[in-house]
Amino acid sequence: MPSRQGLFVTLEGVEGAGKTSRCRSLVAALRDRGLNVVRTREPGGPAVAEGIRNLLLDPDIPVPPPTELLLYLAGRAANVELVVRPALEAGSCVVCERYSDSTLAYQVGGRGLDEEAIVRAQTIATGGLTPDVTILLDLDPRIGLARLDSEGGGKDRIERESLDFHDRVRRRYLEMARDEDRFLIVDATVPQAEQDAAILEHVMRSINPNTESGD
User: Model-level pTM?
Assistant: First the structure.
């Protein structure tokens, strides 16, 4: 295990990459192996952050980029304080759908906001808490957005951004993943069972290098 008691796993990726499904599968597989797992998401998690999520994703509410950034960070601060850190301190494995890398990908890569200022603000929001393992579900945004179209139900405010915006987000994700060892890049176009197996194996090895993922 890492130095803290629990393991902090995050799943990242562009819109339509399948983060929610892969998160759900990972949590179920870890619980099947007897681990205590807490699942959360961003924006979201505790009630106050879910309220922020509703504001951020509503396509009918204009949100200027600086306001967007601060709302994301406010939601993250609540999620860390009320959900993530207590669970880690209790020895649980925390699986979070999106975290601080999303801010760098979307607000720096996508919006072009100042990275240095955002990194400083992130430290305040997270208290310096970083993931142990980050799974990047890599996907061409064209495929991801087409998946969303096929599902129906309408797109949220972020999903409605331009293709150029989503391309910039993907490029930033890949840059970060190539620079930091905590990332595992997973091809989000391969069958879901293959993705799940690769993710589970990687996470189990992070928990215990001598543990196999198979039954």
Answer: 0.93
